[in-house]
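I have a small job for you when you get a moment. Would you make up a two-line entry for one protein for me to read? No commentary is needed, just the two lines. Write everything out right here, beneath this request.
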Amino acid sequence: MIRNLIGAFIGNRIDRRDGRGGVKGAAIGYVAQRAITRMGVPGMVLAGGYGLWKMRSDRRKQRKA
């Protein structure tokens, strides 16, 4: 279940950055979730850290605007 949430989060961020949405974010999110789970616990920790870092940087950008 965590794998699906991470993949959805990654796909959402990619679609938001692109601005168009669609299959691209979903496909990259799917590939990312598979890669993360193949790496095991270190992969999940790295993905969680990356997600936290991106979330904080997005909030900082919103505050400045």
